[in-house]
Design goal:
CATH class: Alpha Beta
Number of strands: 8
CATH architecture: 3-Layer(aba) Sandwich
CATH superfamily: Alpha/Beta hydrolase fold, catalytic domain
Order of helices and strands: HEEEHEHEHEHHHHEHHEHH
Largest sheet: 8 strands, mixed
Strand order of the largest sheet: 1-2-4-3-5-6-7-8
Structural class: alpha/beta
């Protein structure tokens, strides 16, 4: 009997150790090399990364993605697709992937072409093309129904995806989406060449200063998302990364989705951090009167929810542009309540 008890204790200790290691892996910030190439070789994502081969404008491209399937997978539920913002990558959904997996959801997290570990080709970037790529990924994975969550630029892409493929999207969640206002009347036009020249001058200091505008208060754990793009500035590949960044800035500027929100038919949730004042190209606005009115997310959120028939709004007081990083508990609560 004592041998059986000892074995049980050993099994319990092993189980506790495994759980501890898993928790540590999820919470621990991966090591960030001083130099990262265009596809972030050397930076570890929270889940295994796979690649989908695409051909776009006669160019061979690789689309990176994570497909996180929980052990207790409820196949009757739609998968959840997480779409990242412009200055980010799929890895910043780390805590949300873990949370949704615990709820039994399969979570698919692509890096869009031009971002993260995906290829950085010179293309005519469009939300239509990114949505088409995302649909091809879901088709490849056998996913016919999905809940789509998009943050920032990912909110613009999520909206375009939902407009193009309403038969796929069961529910839509927009987290501080940019594009709730048309930037063209308020932000002076920047040529692609000028945008590129600005990108190639990027430094860790300039990235950090910009990222600080996303949060009411800066915390050390946000440094990871600064150091990744900063490490790319030291790579010989950086001109390629910078040009793709300039092209996707132009995509955001030229392709607003604000005028089509009323066409959305699926249940939609807007989660809006109330202190957010993000405007793409804000530094180019010289008119102080225009600047004072632009990027007012509390107002923009209310306006958007009035345009989308089947929508609701959750405002998060004291939260900036990235609720899922600043206050993941509040963000996850809003998501969970909507998915019930």
């Amino acid at each position: 009997m004592s041998l059986i008890i000892q074995r049980r204790k050993l099994v319990l200790l092993i189980f506790i150790l495994v759980v501890s290691l898993v928790k540590k892996a999820w919470s621990q910030t991966p090591a960030i090399p001083e130099v990262l190439d265009a596809e972030l070789t050397g930076y570890t994502y929270p889940c295994p990364v796979h690649f989908l081969n695409l051909k776009i404008e006669n160019q061979a491209c690789r689309m990176a993605y994570m497909d996180a399937v929980p052990e207790k997978f409820n196949a009757s539920r739609p998968a959840i697709v997480l779409l990242h913002g412009k200055n980010f990558l799929g890895a910043y959904w780390r805590q949300t992937i873990k949370f949704l997996n615990k709820q039994g959801y399969r979570v698919i997290v692509p890096d869009q072409i031009g971002f993260g570990k995906s290829s950085k080709p010179s293309l005519h970037y469009s939300f239509h093309q990114l949505a088409t790529n995302t649909r091809q990924l879901l088709d490849t994975l056998g996913v016919t129904k999905a809940i789509v969550i998009g943050h920032s630029m990912g909110g613009m892409l999520a909206t375009r995806f939902a407009l193009m493929y309403p038969e796929v999207v069961t529910k839509l969640i927009l987290e501080n989406p940019i594009g709730l206002e048309d930037y063209r009347p308020i932000v002076p036009f920047t040529t692609l060449d000028a945008a590129y020249q600005k990108e190639v001058k990027t430094s860790e200091e300039s990235i950090r200063n910009y990222f600080k505008t996303y949060f009411p208060e800066w915390k050390p754990e946000y440094d990871e998302w600064v150091k990744i793009p900063a490490a790319q500035t030291h790579s010989k590949d950086y001109p390629e990364v910078a040009f793709a960044s300039a092209q996707t800035y132009d995509m955001i500027y030229q392709q607003p989705i604000i005028y089509e929100l009323e066409q959305l038919q699926m249940p939609t949730l807007l989660i809006i951090g109330q202190t957010d004042r993000t405007v793409v190209g804000k530094a180019n606005i010289k008119d102080k009167t225009v600047l004072a009115k632009a990027g007012n997310y509390p107002t923009l959120g209310r306006k958007a929810v009035n345009q989308i028939r089947t929508s609701k709004l959750v405002g998060l007081p004291g939260i900036g542009h990235i609720p899922h990083l600043q206050d993941p508990d509040a963000f996850h609560k809003a998501v969970t309540n909507f998915l019930r």
